[in-house]
């Protein structure tokens, strides 16, 4: 057990402190404005400390510290020590995704721009990260058409320089030929700066500058030079058109969203430069420490800017208030070398961008949990854990989950999603059109289960073509709902004689309660347990699958009803129009003259058709140019 150090011996200065176990290993690293005040807060009555802090202190045998000159230095020292020692009681990044970035090798005599992943190197400028390697490659390819920096390796550059002959890229205009002295160092460095300027979010300024040079060359009758500037401008404009302008052109900010549970938090950032989203980035963090939401957000943001950030914005837009906002602003300002402001996105475009970042965080959190469950050992442990907690006869190697979806009793549909060996098996998913005429989830669930299980029995008896089979018998059927849905499942299994061969459970949305046959009270699985992760994944996927199918059915129904209301548009004309255009929405995009030109409908019918479609889809034609 750790002994309290003499308070007078602890310096009243900024710094980092390290708790160590009996073998001298660092188990926790912290930072403080005042080491004396912060360390004193650990040596109080154990009942007043959080559970994880008590657990850490129970293992700790000693504490050491290092003083520094400022908060910023304390933060960087803490981060360095965490990276070196990997202390078990510190929150830590668990994001194993290597985002693609564009790097400009300013440390070389003739810099090049290239797509990279992984750790950063000194004296190399990085831009991004990008959502996908495809997006990064497309951006880089279009940009190098306008500003053709070399793309070859250092060895290839040296070989062509020695031979005095350029490669094919020079001959097709994709490189300016530094290997043969076709460009001066000054001209090449200017191109490098222009590439960096564009990737840094100043594409509009670059395009304006090239346009001015193009006009100047044309005015001086230098038409070949003007044509080269024109081609550069077209390539740069093409990239800019792929970057959505989301706020005013002078906006320079990082917008954050997060999704968290008791064990982990997913943080996602939208990087907005010069009003355009130029990249995204994210982290998943283990929440080992006991922190409030405000403290957690502050801690995760510190980790993000220490490890994942490639530059610092003028403004950080947050999804919720954080602890000690002024200190974080001061820290980021010191790291950036200029003022950085932090604030919650409460209205307008910042609020909308926070919502987008939050949805990205939710999606990434869901993918992260699925990836974690994809590991074989983790999946095996999760299935064993599920069998133990639900008291199943065996580990459920095949689980089928069912959900219903409807809108006020219309377009009733059901969904079945399948998990085998702990992984979703998409090819075995099934949709069901339900014939229930009114809002009755129990009757709809009964119909779907009867159809699926009756088909299973028929396949087992050889009465159906096995090439279109539902596949294997499930070990466990999971129903989205509560005790009512469970009762339906019990009745169907009993009537079909399957109660002894198929286990049954239902998962209620409220409190994540699991209902099982023969249990009077629902089970509540521990938050963070692998068993609950499996059930949540199945339930969420079945809901998504049902909602998607329901929306598609509803859209088809709505479109069919729209066409049915047009006088003079009978079944044959409807079929011909849909065959010609592909969908009702595509018909709505056509002009009256285009519809008449198909010779499928007369002008009068085309007029009424477009009037009706405008009510459904709004104005579809482009505004006239003035």
From TrEMBL:
Pfam families: GIY-YIG, HHH_5, UVR, UvrC_RNaseH, UvrC_RNaseH_dom. Residues 255-493 form the UvrC family homology region profile domain. GO terms for molecular function: DNA binding; excinuclease ABC activity. It is found in: Cytoplasm. It comes from the Bacteria. GO terms for cellular component: cytoplasm; excinuclease repair complex. Residues 204-239 form the UVR domain. GO terms for biological process: nucleotide-excision repair; SOS response. The keyword Cytoplasm applies. InterPro entries: GIY-YIG_endonuc (IPR000305), GIY-YIG_endonuc_sf (IPR035901), GIY-YIG_UvrC_Cho (IPR047296), RuvA_2-like (IPR010994), UVR_dom (IPR001943), UVR_dom_sf (IPR036876), UvrABC_protein_C (IPR050066), UvrC (IPR004791). Keywords: Cytoplasm, DNA damage, DNA excision, DNA repair, Excision nuclease, SOS response. The UvrABC repair system catalyzes the recognition and processing of DNA lesions. UvrC both incises the 5' and 3' sides of the lesion. The N-terminal half is responsible for the 3' incision and the C-terminal half is responsible for the 5' incision. Belongs to the UvrC family. This is UvrABC system protein C. It comes from Ferrimicrobium acidiphilum DSM 19497. The gene is uvrC.
